[in-house]
Design a protein that fits this description.
The chain has three domains: about 325 residues, no CATH class; about 140 residues, C2 domain (Immunoglobulin-like, Sandwich); about 110 residues, Sandwich (Lipoxygenase-1), CATH 2.60.60. Helix content is about 25%, strand content about 20%. It contains 14 helices and 20 strands.
Length: about 625
């Protein structure tokens, strides 16, 4: 990534403290919070704008705890920090922390229920819509953290999940789905002072041993179980929240606040978490190790820039707040105090579907083949982007490692988990590869842009090969297209090749392969595209692909290399002309088709269309149930 480490100016240098204390937030890493929240809200019909607003508010609970760290007081504006003392103290008391008995856990749940319902119902004026969206996001953070912070997922708090007293509630029950008379007889805690046959137990750090409680990321022993319980708990809480407001208010929440753009808050939530090692595991700093290769997921210099960008160069925590941060601050000072008012037993919403299947995409190893980090040296900085079943995912960061083995302790694979629909869906395009040959007659080649037309609204420009002459006489290349997320096979209603400009071109032949199967091939097109004859050729014999609803899961994955300005896409596709991977996974058979075909664990490397890398990945299925 780096030509050289940048020189930090007088404002930025003191903020090195931030990278030394970024490990203080104790919760699911941000990616699990974001991924679970989006997965559930998409299924419940929320718009992208509403989802990003709620995700950003979810992050605010950790943000204010992070800013409240004593070491950060050394660099923040003193007067501003003093003005925010009450806010930071309340933020530190959020989550499900420091609860050493089932009774204290129960009181926390009852207080969360009581105050969330009360604040959701209160009308304060024109800002109610944004306030309710922020309240839903912040309360979801606390709900999700219970499963990350407690012993609930590791042993069912005395009974293994799905057995004993918990057998009637499914393999991954929630606290609220278990009857009060049963759950309050379990031994549940988020810290244990020692005794009762157990050693002292606290939250721990990202790389602590298994006696510590946190399930924050894939490297922790019970992360997947906590994630699945949290998924059901999130769905349950969202449906409960619906009962706290009117139908009109709920419809407005699902649409999102048209007057508020969450992009700035969402982007900084991701960047602060991503550069600070708390997006999705593999190395959140706990001290001076922020600058060591052991904390592979941390980039201190970029973290500093992200925090300054969000707080402002004046380093005043109470200034420059977005509308969302202002609402979060107000709610933290009211809703966030959560005094106990007695037991609360809400009527639970529908638990349907009680069984949910999930697909998990994992990265096990990365090896650079013939790529480098620029003339200044240094090693490569990897991250992954994926679209699984129409939902976008980001991996954590691996900073300054040309080669990385995720199986080497204390590390663990990048893992992205997506729920599967309960019914077959329209087939989504996960892979589109086109082999195109230019004719050989005189002046057959062109320097103009060439496009693939798939419908009246879907037109894609052919990606260019950096080291080849595209569309020159006799050229024969294969191209892999990036398809807009959610594009369906049945949306392809036509097939045409178009060009711009005035430089005539002869299309010799074309073969189109989609989701691993050929949908059109013509070896003798020999059509001339020019101003006189027309700038497009349409396949008159193309027939739209007839597809039946499918349970197969479309997956698109790209391996990225981080840069200060423009991130690079590494070539990991075994097909010449392609870089990222387009796959379709069958939960029924466990098979993959597309750019990689065969078993669910595979190794693939690029063919030289850009800087090449080799990766070992896997795709698998997990099932879970939650009743009541």
């Amino acid at each position: 990534m780096r030509l050289s480490r940048p020189c930090w100016n007088a404002v930025v240098v003191p903020l090195a403290w931030l990278s030394l204390t970024a490990g203080s937030a104790r919760a699911f890493d941000t990616a699990p919070h974001f991924d679970i929240t989006e997965d559930v809200l998409r299924a419940e019909g929320f718009s992208p704008r509403a989802i990003k607003t709620i995700q950003s508010a979810n992050f605010m609970v950790d943000f204010y705890e992070f800013i409240g760290n004593k070491a950060i007081a050394k660099v923040l504006d003193k007067d501003c920090r003093n003005d925010a003392a009450d806010l930071l103290a309340i933020a530190d008391a959020q989550h499900f922390d420091e609860l050493d008995s089932t009774a204290s856990v129960a009181r926390k749940w009852d207080a969360l229920l009581y105050h969330t319902q009360r604040h959701a119902a209160v009308s304060t004026g024109s800002g109610d819509l944004l306030r309710r969206l922020v309240l839903l996001g912040m309360s979801l953070h606390n709900v999700q953290d219970f499963y990350s912070h407690s012993n609930w997922a590791e042993s069912g708090a005395g009974d293994p999940l799905g057995s004993g007293r918990l057998a009637a509630y499914g393999t991954h029950p929630t606290w609220l789905s278990v009857d009060r008379s049963v759950r309050e007889k379990l031994r549940v805690y988020t810290t244990w002072p020692g005794g009762g046959g157990l050693p002292k137990r606290t939250h721990g750090n990202w790389d602590s041993d298994s006696t510590f409680l946190n399930n924050d990321w894939e490297g922790r022993p019970h992360h997947t179980a906590a994630y699945l319980c949290s998924y059901f708990a999130t769905r349950q809480w969202v449906r409960l929240f619906q009962t706290f407001v009117s139908p009109t208010e709920w419809a407005a929440m699902k649409a999102g606040d048209p007057a508020f753009d969450p992009s700035h808050d969402w982007d900084h939530a991701r960047r602060i978490s991503f550069y600070g090692g708390h997006w999705n595991g593999n190395g959140g700093p706990t001290g001076l190790d922020a600058f060591k290769s052991r904390t592979a997921a941390t980039s201190p210099d970029l973290l500093i820039g992200a925090v300054v960008s969000y707080i402002g160069r004046g380093l005043c925590i109470t200034a420059n707040a977005t509308a969302l941060r202002k609402e979060a601050r107000s709610l933290m000072l009211s809703w966030g105090q959560m005094d106990y008012r007695g037991p609360v037993d809400p009527v639970l919403p529908s638990a349907a579907p009680e069984q949910v299947d999930f697909v998990q995409l994992r990265m096990h190893r990365i090896d650079a083949i013939d790529t480098g980090d620029g003339p200044g040296g240094g090693q490569l900085d990897w991250y992954g982007r994926a679209v699984i079943g129409g939902q976008q995912y980001w991996s954590g960061l691996i900073d300054e490692h040309d080669h990385f083995d995720f199986g080497r302790r204390p590390y663990a694979p990048w893992t992205m988990t997506k729920s599967l629909p309960t019914k077959p869906q329209d087939e989504i395009i996960s892979s589109l590869i086109v082999r195109l040959r230019t004719g050989t007659i005189e002046d057959a080649g062109t320097d103009d842009n060439v496009y693939l037309r798939l419908s009246s609204s879907l037109r894609l420009e052919f990606p260019y090969h950096p080291d080849a002459d595209d569309f020159e006489s006799g050229s024969d290349h294969t191209y892999s297209f990036t398809i807009p997320p959610g594009s369906r096979v049945r949306d392809i209603t036509r097939l045409a090749v178009e060009k711009s400009g005035t430089d005539g071109w002869q299309l010799g032949s074309i073969t189109v392969t989609m989701n691993g199967r050929t949908i059109y091939s013509n070896s003798a097109v020999n059509a001339w595209l020019d101003n006189g004859s027309g700038l497009s050729w349409a396949a008159a014999d193309f027939k739209p692909v007839a597809t039946a609803p499918t349970s197969d899961v479309p997956i698109r994955f790209e391996l990225m290399e981080l840069d200060y300005k423009t991130d690079d896409r590494a070539d990991i596709n075994p097909i010449a002309g392609a870089k990222g991977l387009g796959l379709s996974f069958s939960p029924a058979t466990g098979k993959l088709v597309g750019d990689v075909t065969g078993t669910t664990k595979f190794t693939t490397e690029g063919k030289g269309d850009s800087d090449r890398a080799r990766v070992e990945m896997s795709v698998g299925r997990v099932s879970a149930t939650c009743r009541k």
